[in-house]
């Protein structure tokens, strides 16, 4: 096979499928290449939420809000149902110092116009009748800032809707080489076990594997895998009404956020931050943690014990609900917690769209739309200068 495409997207996770859809929507003859199946990477080993309140105030939150609203638009536009749902979110604070830290966070977000509010113990117990009665309070985000989707179905929705616009897809495709023009260093073709594809534009959306693709064109892309584990319960009666996270989640995600948690050494060592949500099928997802373990996605028994310990602190009735399986995945971590959504000056026609860490599902629609603007040489409709690859230049 030797064919020509306007653009080739590598990686069919939440990011690559969105980028491919948006390029096809803009009229580019687009090919999506995936080494496994659609959504076989991080995008099928994660939670299902898009939140503004798990993000740093500023650009991080703004991208979240943009994406959440855009998801709603896509849910109405697409025939493919990806289980879009708006819901409230409670960031539960076990102690007064945590409540204070959350209040400070709320004030910053309120100043930017986001309607987060603090909820004291009495109201929290009314909102969440099954929560431990001694939890100090919570930070509440209304459904305008919190959604749930099926991450797996999001990927398939972009692929199926993209196909209607002419998108081509090859799964189980092994990429051998990227050819560059010897004079200009610009992208000229990509060689795969399915043949060579001529193209002037390649978009690297390979998540935690983006550095491997970067090496094919001589780039060092600073993305590392950051592991997380979830427990899945049997179907159960409603235990919680909102998406629940502990405010300590901020500490597990960002360095430099510190308040004393009253937790065991096991919970501390496993960097556990409790979170709980219902899937549409009424199974509970119970998480989670953040650890650097390379590419090892085997579930660790110590992690499972620590998640259970922490989860039962907040919802004691979880002790009576069976866990039917566990899974672990890796988040594409970048040291400044911002994704890379960028062209590359030294390799014309090569683009990077990866490193979304714990926000790739949330940011997927936003990223795809902005990447299409970049690839087409247009102004983006959002200032994404801080997502430029050039920020890593020495
Ligand atoms: C436990 C856990 C919970 C999470 N919870 C949330 C959450 O609630 N909300 C949220 O927004 N995010 C969450 N995330 C993060 C989210 O999963 C990721 O940010 C997102 O999936 C990244 O998407 P991606 O498309 O960049 O990567 P991936 O989904 O990994 O896609 C990359 C694709 O590239 C393919 N690929 C790699 N190398 C090649 C190659 N050489 N050739 C062809 N294809 C290749 C891979 O097979 C893969 O399918 C969570 C992650 C974890 C681990």
What would you call the structural class?
alpha/beta
List each distinct ligand once.
flavin-adenine dinucleotide
CATH top-level class of the largest domain: Alpha Beta
**Total domains:** 2
Report the total helices: 10
**Unreliable residue runs:** none
The end-to-end distance, rounded to whole angstroms, is 40 Å
Average pLDDT number: 95
- The CATH superfamily of the largest domain is identified as FAD/NAD(P)-binding domain
CATH fold-level topology of the largest domain: FAD/NAD(P)-binding domain
Biggest sheet strand order reads 7-8-6-16-17-18-15-19
Residues in β-strands, percent = 25-35%
Supply Rg.
21 Å
**What percent of the residues sit in helical stretches (DSSP H or I)?**
25-40%
- Largest sheet descriptor: 8 strands, mixed
Describe this protein's structure.
This protein is α/β, with parallel strands linked by helices. It has two domains: 2-45 and 152-222 and 336-392, 3-Layer(bba) Sandwich (FAD/NAD(P)-binding domain); 89-141 and 224-333, D-Amino Acid Oxidase, Chain A, domain 2 (2-Layer Sandwich). Helices cover 29% and strands 27% of the residues. The protein is built from ten helices and 21 strands. It has helices at residues 14-25, 59-77, 96-111, 121-127, 151-164, 210-215, 249-253, 265-269, 301-314, 360-375; strands spanning 2-4, 7-10, 30-33, 49-51, 85-86, 89-93, 117-120, 137-141, 146-148, 168-170, 175-180, 187-192, 195-198, 202-204, 224-235, 243-246, 272-278, 283-289, 323-333, 340-343, 350-354. The strands form four sheets. It has an eight-stranded mixed sheet. Strands 10-3-2-14-21-20 form a six-stranded mixed sheet. α1 packs parallel to α10 and α2 (59-77) crosses α10 (360-375). The protein starts with a strand and ends in a 19-residue tail after the last helix. The model has no long low-confidence stretch (mean pLDDT 95).
């Amino acid at each position: 096979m030797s064919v020509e495409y306007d653009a080739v997207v590598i990686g069919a996770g939440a990011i690559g499928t969105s980028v491919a859809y948006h390029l096809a929507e803009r009229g580019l003859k687009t090919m999506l290449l995936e080494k496994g199946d659609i959504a076989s990477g991080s995008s099928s080993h994660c939670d299902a939420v898009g939140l503004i309140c798990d993000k740093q105030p500023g650009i991080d939150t703004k991208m979240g809000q943009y994406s959440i609203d855009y998801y709603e638009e896509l849910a109405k536009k697409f025939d493919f149902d990806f289980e879009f749902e708006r819901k409230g979110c409670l960031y539960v604070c076990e102690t007064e110092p945590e409540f204070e830290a959350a209040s400070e966070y709320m004030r910053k977000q309120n100043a930017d116009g986001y309607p987060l509010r603090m909820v004291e113990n009495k109201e929290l117990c009314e909102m969440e009748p099954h929560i431990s009665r001694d939890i100090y309070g919570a930070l509440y985000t209304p459904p305008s800032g919190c959604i749930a989707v099926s991450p797996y179905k999001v990927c398939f929705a972009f692929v199926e809707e993209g196909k209607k616009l002419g998108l081509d897809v090859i799964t189980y495709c092994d990429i051998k080489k990227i050819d560059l023009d010897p004079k200009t260093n610009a992208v000229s073709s990509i060689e795969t076990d399915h043949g060579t594809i001529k193209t002037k534009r390649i978009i690297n959306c390979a998540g935690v594997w983006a550095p491997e693709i970067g090496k094919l064109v001589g780039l060092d892309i600073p993305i590392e895998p950051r592991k997380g584990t979830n427990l899945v319960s049997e179907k159960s009666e409603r235990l919680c009404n909102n998406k629940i996270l502990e405010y300590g989640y901020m500490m597990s995600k960002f360095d430099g956020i510190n308040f004393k948690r009253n937790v065991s050494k096991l919970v501390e060592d496993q960097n556990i931050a409790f979170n709980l949500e219902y899937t549409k099928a009424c199974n509970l997802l119970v998480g989670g943690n953040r650890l650097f373990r390379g590419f090892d996605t085997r579930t660790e028994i110590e992690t499972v014990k620590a998640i259970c310990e922490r989860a039962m602190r907040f919802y004691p009735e979880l002790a009576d609900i069976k866990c039917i399986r566990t899974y672990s995945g890796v988040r594409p971590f970048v040291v400044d917690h911002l994704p890379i959504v960028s062209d590359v000056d030294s390799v014309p026609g090569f683009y990077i769209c990866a490193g979304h860490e714990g926000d790739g599902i949330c940011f997927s629609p936003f990223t795809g739309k902005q990447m299409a603007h970049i690839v087409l040489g247009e102004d983006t409709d959002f200032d994404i200068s801080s997502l430029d690859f050039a920020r890593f230049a020495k």
